[in-house]
Amino acid sequence: xxxxxxxxxxxxxxxxxxxxxxxxxxxxxxxxxxxxxxxxxxxxxxxxxxxxxxxxxxxxxxxxxxxxxxxxxxxxxxxxxxxxxxxxxxxxxxxxxxxxxxxxxxxxxxxxxxxxxxxxxxxxxxxxxxxxxxxxxxxxxxxxxxxxxxxxxxxxxxxxxxxxxxxxxxxxxxxxxxxxxxxxxxxxxxxxxxxxxxxxxxxxxxxxxxxxxxxxxxxxxxxxxxxxxxxxxxxxxxxxxxxxxxxxxxxxxxxxxxxxxxxxxxxxxxxxxxxxxxxxxxxxxxxxxxxxxxxxxxxxxxxxxxxxxxxxxxxxxxxxxxxxxxxxxxxxxxxxxxxxxxxxxxxxxxxxxxxxxxxxxxxxxxxxxxxxxxxxxxxxxxxxxxxxxxxxxxxxxxxxxxxxxxxxxxxxxxxxxxxxxxxxxxxxxxxxxxxxxxxxxxxxxxxxxxxxxxxxxxxxxxxxxxxxxxxxxxxxxxxxxxxxxxxxxxxxxxxxxxxxxxxxxxxxxxxxxxxxxxxxxxxxxxxxxxxxxxxxxxxxxxxxxxxxxxxxxxxxxxxxxxxxxxxxxxxxxxxxxxxxxxxxxxxxxxxxxxxxxxxxxxxxxxxxxxxxxxxxxxxxxxxxxxxxxxxxxxxxxxxxxxxxxxxxxxxxxxxxxxxxxxxxxxxxxxxxxxxxxxxxxxxxxxxxxxxxxxxxxxxxxxxxxxxxxxxxxxxxxxxxxxxxxxxxxxxxxxxxxxxxxxxxxxxxxxxxxxxxxxxxxxxxxxxxxxxxxxxxxxxxxxxxxxxxxxxxxxxxxxxxxxxxxxxxxxxxxxxxxxxxxxxxxxxxx
Amino acid sequence: xxxxxxxxxxxxxxxxxxxxxxxxxxxxxxxxxxxxxxxxxxxxxxxxxxxxxxxxxxxxxxxxxxxxxxxxxxxxxxxxxxxxxxxxxxxxxxxxxxxxxxxxxxxxxxxxxxxxxxxxxxxxxxxxxxxxxxxxxxxxxxxxxxxxxxxxxxxxxxxxxxxxxxxxxxxxxxxxxxxx
Lengths: 829, 180
Ligand code: SF4
Ligand code: SF4
Ligand code: SF4
Ligand code: SF4
Ligand code: FES
What we know:
The structure holds two protein chains of two kinds. Chain A is α/β, with parallel strands linked by helices. Chain A has 26 helices and 36 strands. By secondary structure, chain B is of the alpha+beta class. Chain B has two domains: about 20-50; about 70-165, Alpha-Beta Plaits, CATH 3.30.70. Chain B is elongated. Bound molecules: iron/sulfur cluster (SF4) (4 copies) and FE2/S2 (inorganic) cluster. One iron/sulfur cluster (SF4) binds next to α4 of chain A. One iron/sulfur cluster binds near residues 109, 118 and 154 of chain A.
């Protein structure tokens, strides 16, 4: 459903002429005339109002009874009074009523000082209570989950948390149990409320009934300062406010940005701040001496690193991880290309595409935005699991489907949590995204010739592909092509066949006429937080800043670097915020590569496995709360990170370390501050030309919407002729393995004490029929083996997993065929 | 502009000068008022000296005198009255109170509420003894005591910790009796 048009109506509130958009609720309409109507239960983010608290009563002329302002839409010519004696009496009565059972807990209550109930009691209440009977009592405080404390006595039964669980995150766990004054909030089955977005109910609760356990009693609103920044733990790049007390981040709350996060945060973003202040963090440069890592001075570490990289020269390589900022990436590619003199670098672990395909997939005319997901006619989720890869977008899709009747098609190999919301959902064999896209392209183009072949190659069903094609092509109804947003995972274009898959995707976009269409297009889910930004600043083997083609014939990408290291062709590698053993595929090959390398320079906040064993120099990395710089959102919004706290220990800014390394390698970049690096970057990247940090401000700027977007290289958007894709491996007694990365992956979750319970267990998701055939059941230990390597895992039966396929969160095995066996008993842990 | 060209207007007021020095008027001015003052001095002399020999002797203070703070415990249970709510810190105009709260556990119950003050510090070198903290406290946990002897050799020694504030003060300051 496209964005509704906004018509203004005029009404009178408290004698003032107010013009407000049609159909907004009175509470919101009144704000246009600077009139405040107190509310508790009303929260537009939660969808339809429920009218549970009656705090918002107002008098509307022509209606005899008082009306709830939160559920009465404004009408032209309406006359509303919010200050009459009748309204005042009602407001006082409602406050008195709400406080009947509310405990006098403010001094010990974590909400105190930022509590709407306090504010409204003070501002609109009568200041007295006639209730002398005992108040209701519940056991308290209780843990609703390891992250959330619940105090049922304080609950005013506004339904906000329940509505969030039922209608926004759709995990359907929270309910109101029992009746009347005994009503309380609980999970329906009494289990802890564990869900990827559970923390949002803490912010939603208008009283101190739901509070954060990690923040419990840490600070008062007047003890703290809020500092705005951007969460860099996943590509959603939610806008956050860090609560700081005494140079420590104590809490993360949303800094509502409708175009980015809609005011929600996932639990990783909300609680993983704890990793900033743990003892495990590296806060001093380390150098390997005689096999062990030792703390050394910065001078020494910088010298060693610069010497090692320069010595290797063109036999050195650089890799940037997802959390790298644009500035760091920019300096890294300059360091590697200009100072060290090597062309081998990558920020896309799965392999990069030819520049013209990158240019086509990211072309401003084909670019969809996050809010487009909410207003499109149809969405195709292709080869990505939003809740794991870009969590906040999951909520946006649910919102679109629930409130705007957006039609959703899901095409993935692993069962998706969005399947229930989807009009069509199809499965294909893991790693066969290319064949699926080719089949979809054929279905959209009406090519019957090799359709069946393609369907078979993708390991999917013809009806499924056709259903997706029909849904997308018919999205606009009778009015021609509709607004379709294709949310596709970077994974689709990984590997050797990545370019072919990208061409297929562009063909699909062409069939749907997405180019140049407002509210439609492609939206990529990059594998790393700043995947898009790193591409645009030129951390790719043959692409320089501003997507300029760099003539460097032999330049190697991530896979080439890995093999080059193992084969001894490369001798040094510079790892910026990435640990290949933990983050990249091809673990065994990386292990060999890192072992063979003579110099491994790493920037990291934690001693992850690969670094502990192989790094020769480690620079302590900043956390995002300390960083300054910019990142680019997958929809092209350049956003600014601002430091909230000082650097702990001897940690130095990442840009400064890279600039120092350049200086030592004989190429002074001439930058003295972080802002100077940003300025250089904006000058070097055509699309960012003219941007300033001030302009980015707190909300960021979408570069595809600026005039300078013309600097984006012209790209051929197709149609392309497609080669026939390789067929899905046929499981011959073995199973197809698909891998994924869950939302809880990454060192920040494991290092945060409050989140540690969520660290993924090594599990293999299996269809019950497959398990039965192998004589294993839920909870059994199995070994998965493929070409010599084997991993152990616990079986998790999942009905939705297609037969013949297993899924596992791992990078130790590459997708392909695996052999699954019951583990011998002695290996059980 | 020179003085000569300046002609005073109508608004110029002639200043009345005092009498010239010397003569009877001068003698009176020199001694008359002094003698008047000395009359009071001599009249009081018979009352004896009023000097208080501090520090051996101390001025008694009124019960409402706002001296160094005290934190209190419940007499029966011995639990601290302070729940670490930070309201005193919010009220303090000198910003000299620092409270860091923590949660009571069944094994470690410090205060009567859910939380207690793990850190409670008052920087007395900053305090202006306004007593707002006492007014703000919902539990009468902090009150202004009578102690005014607060000198020390270093500023940091004037940061009073929770233990110091909770300790029974040496009764050093005499209280003024009723009607005194
Ligand atoms: S919820 Fe608000 S009003 Fe209730 S005890 Fe907590 S701070 Fe006080
Ligand atoms: S717990 Fe909070 S959000 Fe939930 S119903 Fe009670 S007051 Fe509302
Ligand atoms: S002294 Fe009183 S006001 Fe201050 S933190 Fe303790 S209980 Fe709260
Ligand atoms: S007496 Fe006044 S200045 Fe001193 S601690 Fe209390 S509130 Fe602060
Ligand atoms: S805000 Fe209107 S009834 Fe609650």
